[in-house]
Structures are given as C-alpha cells and as structure tokens.
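User: Design a sequence. Structure:
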C-alpha cells in the first residue's frame, strides 16, 4: 500500500528564494513514490495543514522551509494525540536552519529530502510554553527572552540581508538601541534565582541565528532544556561576548550562567519580548510578565 506523505512548503522561506530550490526537489519525491504538496499562503497556515494531515492519516509530514516553517508544522502536529502524530521530516531552505542542524539533517536539500522520506524516526524533545493569559505554544529549538527576543524582532526588519549576517546586524543594533535589563524571579525544578538579566535563552538545541552557539551542550533528545542567562553588563562587554557566543565559549565569563531544567516559571518587572524558534511570541507593545516553560521528552518523532 502506498505511503501517505504530506509536503508542507513555504515558498517565501529564505526571503522568497526557497521556491526555486523546491522545484528542483520534485523528481526526488517522484523517485520515492510521490507525495501530496501543500503550500503556505498566510501566517500559521502550516500549523493548520500539519494538523489536518494527521487527522487525514498521513504517516509523514515534511516541512520544506526555514525554522519558522518547522515551528508552525510542529505546533500543528502537537495538537494531535501522540498515536495520531505523523513523523516529521525537515528540508532546510531557510535563513538559519538551526533545528535541522541540531537533529542531524544534512545541509543539502536533496539529501535532507531523501532522509525525510525514508529515514527511521528518532524521539525528539519539544518545549512547551504558557503565558499569563493562558496562551500556549510549542518550540523545537530555542526560546529567546529579553535581548534575544529583541534581536529577533529587529532581524525581521532587515529584508535586504540573509542568513547569519542578518542576525549579526540585528545583534549590533540591539546592543546600541535596546539594552535594558529585566529584573527576573526564576524558579525551576532545581533552583530559584533573582537577578537583573539582559538575556535569557532556553534551548532544546545548541545553536540559533544561523551561527550563534548559545548552549553548546544542549541536546534535543536528553529530556532536558538548557538555559543561558546573561546578567546586566556594559555595552562594551556585550560586544566582547559576540565572538564567544559564535564559538560557544561564553561560559568562561562570570556574567554568563548556564544550567538545565525540566520545568521553569518566571516573573518579570517589565514586559517580556520573546521569540520561539525565530517566530514572534511577544513583541513590542505587549504586556506579558509571566511565563511557564516545560520540556516534553520524546514528544515528536523526527526522520533524520
């Protein structure tokens, strides 16, 4: 019996350049027996398509696009009960492709597609978040709070740049223009912390922004989330830390704290700016002050 495979494709990934690359992949799909294609046309469309694919009995859902496309597909799959949740495949055609790298997906779209079509799945952890309004969402790679969230917001305003350069320029802009610490009360399953915090990033994978090794020890299948906390420091020191974050050596500085957790709650004295896998969860003008985060071990099966 023919396998049911759904391709969810974001033609606007990588600033609209994904369309050309995806057209070259069609012969590979036919080589492996074909699949049903669905293109996304508006925000969260991939979430709806992924949920519908599970409800219609598809065995695999392959996301072709960037980290944002994978994030939306993940959120659709997680709306389904585990026994109805299809295997996730990823073909990286975005600016960062950090989740794909974290789970071992090849950088070559053609090779990634072959693995997505036939590779055995492995259990992969998923992060779950809920804010003080009861809004819930899932993330597969990183959740950036404070400085990290503002960098993401600024990166969306740089349409002429792509990949790592886009995020690097957004980092420099944020250091110069949005350098405000938060007073956070943090409780995890192992510790309690009160601190003035510039940046808090919660990580399922080790890398974000296409080349910043935020949490080098993070693994997406260890049943834990890692955190990276940068306490209040000077702008000059933050510039000093940029190459350390690129190399993954920032832990040797006293202003940087690393740890792991299964559950976390936090309260902030000021609104929280947050991205989830590079997608805006809480942007400028929002009034979010509280957040809960939890890891869901092995909640997703990923072909890689």
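Assistant: Done.
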């Amino acid at each position: 019996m023919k396998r049911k495979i759904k391709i969810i494709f974001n033609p606007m990934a990588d600033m609209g350049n994904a369309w050309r690359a995806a057209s070259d992949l069609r012969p590979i799909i036919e080589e492996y027996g074909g699949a049903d294609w669905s293109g996304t046309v508006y925000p969260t469309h991939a979430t709806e398509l992924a949920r519908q694919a599970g409800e219609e009995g598809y065995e695999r859902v392959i996301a072709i696009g960037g980290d944002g496309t994978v994030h939306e597909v993940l959120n659709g799959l997680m709306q389904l009960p585990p026994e109805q949740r299809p295997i996730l495949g990823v073909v990286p055609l975005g600016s960062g492709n950090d989740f794909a790298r974290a789970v071992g997906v090849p950088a070559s779209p053609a090779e990634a597609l072959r693995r997505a079509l036939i590779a055995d799945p492995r259990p992969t952890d998923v992060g779950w978040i809920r804010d003080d309004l009861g809004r819930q969402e899932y993330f597969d790679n990183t959740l950036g709070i404070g400085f990290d969230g503002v960098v993401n917001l600024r990166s969306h305003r740089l349409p002429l740049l792509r990949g790592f350069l886009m995020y690097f320029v957004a980092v420099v802009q944020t250091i110069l223009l949005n350098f405000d610490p938060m007073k956070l009360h943090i409780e995890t399953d192992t510790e309690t912390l009160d601190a003035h915090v510039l940046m808090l990033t919660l990580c399922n994978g080790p890398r974000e922004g296409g080349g910043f090794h935020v949490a080098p020890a993070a693994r997406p299948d260890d049943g834990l989330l890692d955190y990276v906390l940068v306490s209040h420091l000077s702008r000059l020191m933050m510039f000093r830390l940029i190459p350390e974050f690129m190399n993954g050596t920032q832990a040797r500085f006293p202003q940087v704290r690393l740890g792991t957790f299964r559950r976390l709650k936090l309260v902030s004295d000021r609104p929280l700016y947050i991205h989830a896998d590079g997608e805006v969860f809480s942007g400028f003008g929002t009034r979010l002050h509280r957040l809960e985060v939890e890891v869901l071990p092995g909640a997703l099966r990923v072909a890689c």
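The first strand starts at residue 5 and ends at 9. The domain at 129-298 is CATH 2.60.200.40 (Tumour Suppressor Smad4).
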